[in-house]
Amino acid sequence: MNNQPRSAYLHIPFCHRRCFYCDFPVVPLGDKAKGDSGPGSSSIKSYLNLIHREISLFDLRGDSLSTVYIGGGTPSLLSSRQVADLLDHLRSKCGLQYGAEITLEIDPASFDINSLKGFLEAGINRISLGGQSFDNNVLQELGRRHSSIELLDSCDLINDSFQRGDLCSWSLDLIQNLPNQNLVDWKEQLLKAISKGPPHLSIYDLSIENGTVFAWKQRRNELHLPNEEVSFDISRMTSEVLRKAGFSRYEISNYSLPGHASRHNRVYWSGAGWWGFGQGATSCVFGQRFSRPRTREGYKKWVESQELRKIESSSSLIDDCKLIPCDDLFIVGLRRREGVDIKELLKRFNLNHKQFQIHLNELKIRWEYALKMGWVKQRGDRFYLTDPDGMEISNQILVDMLLWWESLSNLYSDQSIL
Predict the structure, then answer these.
(1) CATH fold for domain 7-270
(2) Which secondary structure element, helix H or strand E, spans residue 413, and what is its range?
(3) What are 289's strand-pairing partners?
C-alpha cells in the first residue's frame, strides 16, 4: 500500500520588507525586488536553483499530488515563468492530479493584472491574498508595504478572475486584535472584506513573537493591545458576522463559503502527511516531521550535504526525524470543526475497552466545566470545540488536554510511539 503524501508545500522566503509582527524565515530584498530582473533577482534565482535541487533529491513517485501550496514570504515576487518551472518540476517528479488545488500566496504590492494572468497560465488555480487590514494607519503600524487602495484593487482583480472561472477559489487574510483595535473599527473591516467577494477568509489573532519589532515595542510598553474582554468580544463578533454572511468556521482561524475550504490546509490539521521544500519548510512524510534550516546559508549547506549523501528514496531517511507526537494530533484535531476522535488516536496504546473508558473519563473530568458550559461537545468518542465560545477559549481547553496526555505518557513511557 502506498502511503506517500499527496500534498506539497514550497517555501519562497523573499519579501520586500519584514512586517513588524513576522518571525517567519524570510529574506527582505527591498521594495524594488523582482524575481527575474533587477534588485534581488540574483538571490531569488540562486535560491530557486537550491529548491529545484532539493526536489530532485527525493523519490516522489506514487500517487500524484492533489494539493500544492507555494507560500512565504512573498511568492508573487517570482515571475510566472519561475512559478511554472516549479510546478513543472513537481509534475515531472510525481504528477499533479486533474483538479489539484494549487495555491499561490500573493501580496497586494507585488503583482498586477499581467502577472496575475501569468500565474494563472502557469497553473495556479487558488490565490491567498495577504491583506491584513484595509486601514492605512493600521497597515503602516504593521510595517506593511501596500496601501488600502492597493488591497482593494487586488481584491477586485482576483475576484474578477474568480467570477470568470479562471480561478477555482481565493482567500483573504486579515489580522484581528491589533493594537488600539475596537469593535466598531473591526466590524467595518469585516464588512469591507465580505463586500469584496472572497469565498474564503483567514482571520488570525495577532501573536507577539520573540525577535520581532512588536516584541520590542511590547517590552517598551508601546504596544497598546485590546484587553482580554475586548479581545474576546472582537473574536466573537468575527464568528457572528461571518456566519450571518454564509461563512462556515471549519477551523479556528479559517472560514469559507460552501465548497471553498482549503484542501491543502486541512491536510495539516488532519494529521496527514505532506512534502515540504525550501528554507525553513517543514515536511511530514511517513509519520516523520522534519524542518529545514531557517537561514539561506544553512539551507544551502543542508541541500549540498544531502546531495553528497545521495539521499533520494524518501525523506524518511533524513536523520533526526521523529514520529508525530500524539499531543500534536490532539491540538490540530481540536482546531477543526469536526474535532478529534479520542478512541482513534489512542489506538496506538493497544488499550482494552476498560482501559480506554478509564482514560476517557479522566479527560472528561478535566473538561468537566468546559463540557458543562458547552465549550466542548461530545459525540460518541469524538470531541469538538463549539463556535464561537469554545474556539475563543481553546488555549485553556488544550492545556487541560495536554496535562491529561502527560499523565498517559508517564503510564506508557516504555512505548516507542511516544
Answers:
(1) Transcription Regulator spoIIAA (3.30.750)
(2) none
(3) 284, 322
For residue 42, the tally of other CB atoms under 10 A from its CB is: 10
Helix, coil or strand: residue 166: coil
Nearest residue to 171 via CA among 196, 200, 194, 150: 200
For the beta carbon of residue 163, count every other beta carbon within 10 angstroms. 10
Q: In terms of Cα–Cα distance, which of 166, 42, 68 is closest to 113?
A: 166
Query: What is the rounded average pLDDT of the residues 327-348?
Result: 75
Exposed, middle or buried by CB within 10 Å (0-12, 13-18, 19+), for 257? middle
**Domain 326-411: CATH architecture, name and number where available:** Orthogonal Bundle (1.10)
Could you give the 3-state DSSP secondary structure of residue 320?
Answer: coil
Q: Give the Cα separation of 70 and 392 in Å (integer).
A: 29
pLDDT-based confidence at residue 312 (cuts at 50, 70, 90): very low
Contact, 76 vs 111, CB < 8 A?
yes
Residue 146: how many other CB atoms lie within 10 Å: 20
- Specify the pTM: 0.87
